[in-house]
Amino acid sequence: MTALPTPGHIPVMLSEVLDMLAPRDGATYLDGTFGGGGYARAILSAARCTLWAIDRDPAAIRRGEALQAELRAPDGTSRLHMVQGGFGEMRDLLAERDAPMLDGVVLDLGVSSFQLDEVERGFSFRTDGPLDMRMGDTGPTAADIVNTMAEADLANIIYEYGEERRSRRVAGAIVAARAEAPILTTFRLAEIIRSVVPGDRSGIDPATRSFQGIRIHVNDELGQIVSGLDQAMEMLSPGGRLVVVSFHSLEDRLVKRAMNRAAGRLPAPSRHDPGAMRAGRDAPAFRLLTTKALRPTDAECRANPRARSARLRAIERLPTAESPTSAPSSTEHRP
């Protein structure tokens, strides 16, 4: 099939995603984080399949509708179906539309390159913009959070979600600054953070971790991941695959834990919990396709710096008649 172009967007670890997902004709897939449409275009180019795509961002939905038009058949149908919403609600979103069971799901976690590049979205401090950070168009903005949240709570989200060791200093500086005037722009917030967080040898801007923590809180990103992983595995047909690309340790830790649990690789349950012991003896319904996270190649990192922190993990639902000890397929990656 002829590849569909992907204007203005470089999907991370695309060849590895396609290798793990293995799209086939007649199958049904879900791209739970449509973004710029890079994975969606590649999946639809790789096989004559049907693809459902979810995104919270109205701008992403508009990009998807343009791709729908490219794929529209003479009878008016399209192999691509766009749905606005969070991937953590995929079960309800697809049930409302009578979507079938899925043969594969791909999730590209975190903020998209389009959102980072749109100044008015307030995700980046490379250029000054309104302090928004919402992936969708509803709910409190980052400005609402930094101007109203209690100092202790602000310190907690910056520490837990941004992994910023100086979170108390940052929260104190934010509270002191907002007492003088509301914090409404990315430049002002970044300057406040830099005033109490010194630079280090990594070269990473001192404001990066705090911005990450606030962004994750604004969008409930970790909650979406936990819910989305559970629902994706539930909705997979036998032989169906879940492929997840993450970009920082908090995301990857959740993905690793969920996949290991589904594949029966968690530590043995306590003997003091008989119910857990029975559950631990149940044959797992999934097998890992990646026994450790895959990393992008050096060549990809040079061509696309955003790929440097990427991690890919994948899992497959076992066919009902197959034993979990069956020989792995050729797509399994081992350390």
Automatic annotation (TrEMBL):
Region span, Disordered: 297-335
Low complexity compositional bias, start-end: 320-335
One GO CC term on file: cytoplasm
Reaction catalysis annotation: cytidine(1402) in 16S rRNA + S-adenosyl-L-methionine = N(4)-methylcytidine(1402) in 16S rRNA + S-adenosyl-L-homocysteine + H(+)
EC class: transferase
Enzyme Commission no: 2.1.1.199
GO BP terms, alphabetized: rRNA base methylation
Major localization listed first in the record, in broad terms: cytoplasm
Localization, UniProt: Cytoplasm
InterPro entries, alphabetized: RsmH, SAM-dep_MeTrfase_MraW_recog, SAM-dependent_MTases_sf
Keywords recorded for this protein, A-Z: Cytoplasm, Methyltransferase, rRNA processing, S-adenosyl-L-methionine, Transferase
Gene3D superfamilies for this protein: Putative methyltransferase TM0872, insert domain, Vaccinia Virus protein VP39
UniProt binding sites for S-adenosyl-L-methionine: 37-39, 55, 87, 108, 115
Molecular function per GO: rRNA (cytosine-N4-)-methyltransferase activity
Highest taxon of source: Bacteria
Similarity comment: Belongs to the methyltransferase superfamily. RsmH family.
Summary of the function given for this chain in its UniProt record: Specifically methylates the N4 position of cytidine in position 1402 (C1402) of 16S rRNA.
Annotated protein name in UniProt: Ribosomal RNA small subunit methyltransferase H
Organism this protein belongs to: Gluconacetobacter johannae
Source lineage: Bacteria, Pseudomonadati, Pseudomonadota, Alphaproteobacteria, Acetobacterales
